[in-house]
Here is the input.
Amino acid sequence: MKIPSMLKAFLLVALLCGLASAQTLTGNVHNGTTNKPSVGDEVILIKLGQGMEEAAHTKSDAQGGFTLKLDDNGPHLIRVVHQGVSYHQMAPPGSTTVEVEVFDVSKKLDAISITADVMRFQAKDNEIEGIRLFAVNNSSQPPRTQMNDQNLEFYLPDGAQIQQAMAMTAGGQPVNSEAIPQKDKNRYAFNFPLRPGETQFQLVYHLPYSGKLQINPRLIYGTQHFVVMLPKSMSFAANAGTNFKAMDDPRQADATVEVVTNATPNQPLGFTISGAGLLEEAKDDSAGTPTAAPNSSTASAADRPGGGLGPPIDAPDPLEKYRWLILGGFGIVLTAGGIVIAGRSKAAGKSVDEEVEIDEPVMAAPAKTAPSRSSLLLEALKDELFQLELDRKQGKISAEEYEKAKAALDQTLDRALKRNA
Here is the structure.
């Protein structure tokens, strides 16, 4: 008789412990466009651990509220789908409440502007690697998200083969996206949503190279700063009729940076690059801010980006806000890109997914240089894990590729969680 009693006591204790460990997460969905509660949005609870596992569903009620049961105390991600666009909010271990802001969707907004369009190049042997970077600002009032099949269109040089395409929302981290070919030759488009604030895009591509290359960029939109960057071991020659100005940055003395301010569609922007070389990793911010190159036409105040009087003493450089974008992009270290150039298989059948995998561990780089950004890394990891699971279910990657990428992301997630703790 004693054994059944002890067993009952054990089961009772286990049940009470299970109930105690169960948590309830309450939240609210706020519509930033109407400044009212967002009603009837789909709310999805995603468990972050060994991958991304959908744990629960609900919908926001008449007050925008929702309640979800957590079956463990690990990290979770809340995804809210509003008018077809997803918005995310992390729920770290121990969270009991969460707020998610969404915005109404418009197919076309007038308040979309390109603040920076950057072309980076490096070359080795018979191949040249290009990285195209865009900073797109959505300043709509009231704030709305723009979403259509051609949210951002652009041209790439003739013969460009895209290796990787990524996008990054304001305050987030890079996630895989797709550059979709359009009817016109060499024209592509992103259909990634342009949420309020700044969205950044990055493409890595490669071109055949014989030691000299003529490039004639075609802009579809006007841009505040059109920038070309390459190693100083390579030569840059602007075409006649262009208005490039040289800039120097103490953080990356090995780089040539050429800028056209307030570039417009159909404006002449052609140039020729020649030679070979790889860009080194940029130094930290302590080295100073970009300055006009000495002994160049940019030495005078009138030739600063934007023209006119120079900025007051101690005023920020016009390109300061986008210096990290120009020099660092999304954290892809260009020396690593050089390794890709040198070691890429000559087989034409190599898939994009295999090449993308080379750069996935770089996701941890922001946390190494700025540990206070762990929460931003978590935001990136949840999107990357979701994309990985989606690619696996759609058969876009092999089981071996899936396991390798998942292991790398899981390891990075574990480090980020430890830092947050």
